[in-house]
Amino acid sequence: MNHFEKVKEFLLELECEIVMEDPEEELVVVKKEDEGILNMVIDCEDPILIIEQFLFEVKEDNAATFKSLLQKNREVVHGAFTLDESGNKVIFRDTLQLENLDLNELEGSLNSLSLLISEYYEELLAFAKS
């Protein structure tokens, strides 16, 4: 079984809904709304699996928001807050090794995002509005 099929199998086992898939690019978009996962992009870029979830758009260059997000990164078990290439979109991003990827490791990354959203929902909402 190739990495892409293995990742899809794990996602289905974790009860994620596959919203879109591109087998040629080895990319899937999933959601699991009760966990705060919506349009999460999961990309098999051998040798790594890239997991990205858009969180909010930064309205202006706000140093206080960026400082707070960087401080929160210390508390995140898997993944981190990052900016996209435009510097305007805050995303949750994690990378895992494809070669020895297992279900528990992928589940840990998804759970990390869910925990992050549940614990910091109010702050994330405030960041999105500022």
Question: How would you describe this structure in keywords?
Answer:
alpha+beta, 130 residues, Yope Regulator, Chain: A
Question: Can you lay out the helices and strands and say which pair or pack?
Answer:
Blueprint: H1 3-13, E1 17-22, E2 27-32, E3 37-45, E4 48-57, H2 63-73, E5 80-83, E6 89-97, H3 103-129
Antiparallel strand pairs: 1-2, 2-3, 3-4, 4-6, 5-6
Would you summarize the structure shown here?
The chain is of the alpha+beta class. The protein has one domain: Yope Regulator, Chain: A, CATH 3.30.1460. It contains three helices and six strands; from the N terminus they run αββββαββα.
Q: What this model shows, in words?
A:
By secondary structure, this protein is α+β, with helices and mostly antiparallel strands. The protein has one domain: Yope Regulator, Chain: A (2-Layer Sandwich), CATH 3.30.1460. Helix content is 38%, strand content 34%. It contains three helices and six strands, in the order αββββαββα. The protein has helices spanning 3-13, 63-73, 103-129, and strands at 17-22, 27-32, 37-45, 48-57, 80-83, 89-97. Strands 1-2-3-4-6-5 form a six-stranded antiparallel beta sheet. A hairpin with a 4-residue loop joins β2 and β3. The longest helix is centred in the C-terminal third of the chain and has 27 residues, at 103-129. The termini are far apart. The relative contact order is 0.18. The model has no long low-confidence stretch (mean pLDDT 91).
